[in-house]
Amino acid sequence: MTNPPGVDLDRVLVPIDGSDGASAALDHAISIAAATDAEILLLAVVDPYGLSTVTERKEVEAELEDLVTDAAARVQDAGVDVSTAVEAGFPHEEILHVVEDHAVDLIAMGTHGRRGLGRFVLGSVAEKVVRLSPVPVLTVRTEATGQRPYRDIVIPTDGSDAAAPAERWGVDLAEEFGAELHALSVVPEGPVRSSETVDAYEEMARAALDRVAARGASFAVDVSETIEYGVPHRVIVDRCKDTDADLVVLGTHGRTGVERFVLGSVAEKVVRLSETPVLVVPSE
Q1: Helix (H, G, I), strand (E, B) or coil at 209
Q2: What is the pTM for the complete model shown?
Q3: What does DSSP assign to residue 34?
Q4: Cα–Cα distance for residue pair 163/254, rounded to 1 Å
Q5: Burial (0-12, 13-18, 19+ Cβ within 10 Å), 237
Q6: With 80 as the cut, is the pLDDT of residue 271 above it?
Q7: Chain centroid to CA 214: how far?
């Protein structure tokens, strides 16, 4: 199989800490890498700042080496190329360094990590990575819903230029996996100034959905289109539940047109609340 059109995916980074969340993220990474002929890079990070003795550090390093070795065997058994690394430092900083140094195209990680020997390897780290990563980040909860290969993908969009990369990823992954795409645009409810009319929001929402549908049609992807009203992150999470979505793809920065923030911080709230795996795509 070839890379999805418009998505250049050669290397997927998966931080490993032995938690169920990291294991679930690895399962998703394997599915994506197998479909796109990408390599998986497994990374374990020793956080020495919470370790009081050299002996503790050596114990942690040995434990993480074993975890990486076991994870690499899982990847190899799936027929996917794999490489490994164990680094020391603040976890989110090391993850981002590896992204830059190893030309990583996608990060897949758990949203809840592991406490042990005084360290917290993943968890809140995921939110920092989502906020700072220059490449898309797939976050997966331990109890994540959905199935693989993906069959239903939700794309929330506000039609802004910042949302376009997420739209491309969503459509192209849907094409790769033969999934149905559910395009969603949310009209925020609440007080609006005279220049911020509901009609204006609905017009933007319709244009946003038309853009996704047009790209979907060019790749023979089935696209359903929905405009809903409410608090954006809550509507997105509910829509994923209603469609039994396997994946939700959204941008990190959205429209401030007519001075309302539709996406952006919404992405972090969705990552925090969604039981559906979330692929967050930076605007650049």
Answers
A1: helix
A2: 0.88
A3: H
A4: 6
A5: buried
A6: yes
A7: 23
